Amino acid sequence: MTLKECVANVQLMRSPSPDSATVINCIAQCEQRIKTEIIDNSADGADFVFDKYSQLTPEDTVLLAPDPYGEVYVWYALYMIDSVRNNT
Fold first, then answer.
1. What is the pTM of this model?
2. Would you say 48 and 39 are in contact if contact means Cβ atoms under 8 Å apart?
3. Residue 49, Ramachandran bin (φ over 0: left; ψ between -120 and 50: alpha; else beta)
4. CA 10 to CA 75: how far, in whole Å?
């Protein structure tokens, strides 16, 4: 799944649609957790470099978790957005 596909999926599933920057931030948080909690614990995890996503990240960037696990980004972003909306 690409960054663009993930943002579009999240925005499609929530009304009002969150802005792209918010969704990208959620995706970056999820990706950082994957790196910290899974990759860094693997044998060569320390060699992996992750640059946090921003609105300047190319839309065609392929996310770390491969299909069919890419949906984790969508669900993580939806959870984070719902969590913030329910606490305001």
1. 0.84
2. yes
3. beta
4. 8
Rounded-to-integer distance, Cα 82 and Cα 88, Å: 10
What per-residue string of b and e applies to 41-62 under the rule 16 or more CB within 10 Å gives b? eeeeeeeeeeeebeeeeeeeee
Q: Are 30 and 7 in contact (CB under 8 A)?
A: no
Judged by DSSP in three states, 42 sits in coil
pLDDT in tens, 32-77: 998 888 888 877 766 777 778 888 999 999 998 888 899 999 999 9
